[in-house]
Prior knowledge:
Blueprint: E1 5-9, H1 16-31, E2 36-42, H2 43-46, E3 61-67, E4 71-74, E5 89-97, E6 100-107, H3 108-129, H4 136-172, E7 180-185, H5 191-202, E8 207-214, E9 218-225, H6 234-243, E10 247-249, E11 254-260, H7 265-280
Parallel strand pairs: 7-8
Antiparallel strand pairs: 1-6, 2-3, 3-4, 5-6, 8-9, 9-11, 10-11
Helix pairs in contact: 4-5, 6-7
Amino acid sequence: GREYVTIDIDKSITDREKLSEVETLASSVVFNNKKVNILEKSRERAVSLPLRKPPAVDDEILRIVEIEDFDMIACCGTHVRTTGEIGVVKILKAEKYKSGTRIYFLSGSRALRYFNHVAGIVQDISNNLNTGYNDLVTKVLSLEQNNKAFKRRLRQTEESLLRFIENDIVSQLSVDGKKQVFEIFNENISISSLRKSVQNLVAKGNVVIVSGTSDQDSSGVLIGKSDNVDIDIKKHFNHLMEKIKGRGGGPENMMQGTGHGVTDLGKLLHQTAEAIKNAIA
């Protein structure tokens, strides 16, 4: 079954500080090993008791569960003899549920397994980052900020590289309306950024762009053509997809797909570009 247990309450308790107070209170009741008494009382007598909430059944004889000096409620479920039998209590999370809160928690040996598992993860991360566990949050937040800054710089470098490639191709465009085919292959460009450049280039007219990017795990391919170039790029695109065992598609003037990482994608793109050149010659 599920490792965790849930309980639904009619109060809104989702912030960490309040949940910590609840967990501390539950643990203190467990550690004090309070006796759990099972009582049978008439309804008339039961309603005069300090029950946590009114009985939900109409029976004349009610089963009352009492945790000495702490809680009393009408309940027909199975209960421990003392609170100490429950073992350590650990709240995992809480979320809004209907008009109240659903709390997820563990107890006893399951809670201990959870503690051991989390402690192992924390220790591994601490060792890998060469940081004491008290400083892990600060360290991870710093790494996150550094990663964001690195991605910004990488994106700026990528944009600069693509502008250079675009300008280079534009400088080679024929002024007499001749149809031309160009290749773009770079392992350091994302396929989404590559698509923007291809769109910019084909919008200038008279060109077909055969492009791609690849790493160890996957390859991305994009073939785009100007509307005034009369060629079916689908045949050439599908041939590329077969070579990289990929899948993809798109409109007749812009087809994109991804497949397995290959070491000779640049060669495959060149062969495709040459085939298209021969087709429009």
